[in-house]
Design a protein that fits this description.
CATH superfamily of the largest domain: P-loop containing nucleotide triphosphate hydrolases
Structural class: alpha/beta
Low-confidence stretches: none
Helix content: 25-40%
Number of domains: 2
CATH class of the largest domain: Alpha Beta
Strand order of the largest sheet: 6-7-8-3-9-10
Number of strands: 10
Amino acid sequence: MIVLQGLSKSFSGVKVLDDLNIEFGEKQITVVMGRSGGGKSVMLKHIIGLMKPDSGKVLIGGIDINALKKKELNEIRKKFGMVFQDGALLDSLTVFENVAFPLRQHMKHSEKEIEDKVYSILADVGLNGQYNKMPSEISGGMRKRVGVARALILNPEIMLFDEPTTGLDPVMSDVINNLIISMHNKFKFTGIIISHDISGAFKTGDIIAMLYEGKIIESGTPEKFQNSSNPVVKQFISGTMEGPILI
């Protein structure tokens, strides 16, 4: 579904992505882990076409998106749903209106069709009865779930999750991780999760990848990743100061 080939990107002479190569399997969830500021979000922005690489290719369904014109790129972007760290909800809109927003922007549904779709997806994420509340009136965990519902409302082929459990306590983090799993089982999307949540990564990911110094240095099943002999991976999983990762 998604292939990054020889992807390189520098900012002010500092190389953030360095000949990065990775394939994201269709209908699988891949969790990409790595240090803060290590290029994970930059990688996501390349995948959705918000940045262009200095060199390399981003292939979506075999199409190099960097060779596309704006109109063609926007068509590709319709395949994507995006869940941001903070939910990125519109503060002036209710929960219902936030989730309905993509339908009103991109589809020509009747108001009854919109209501049915929004009520259905909000039920899927466990938010029955929260329709008329404002984002400021619900918890952080609920805002994340609204963000998931809004991203899924157009039934995208690809879902991108940027640190979906950041700022949540362990219990709510587990709720969000279980929600991602249940939504993946229902919608069968290709998922990419950027995360520092080690236990959550092993729970949600079919494949775990480690981005370090601009390259993917390890990729495999959770079991393979946990048993890696790579000292960088071992240090990252253990969370210790001692090892090759410089503090």
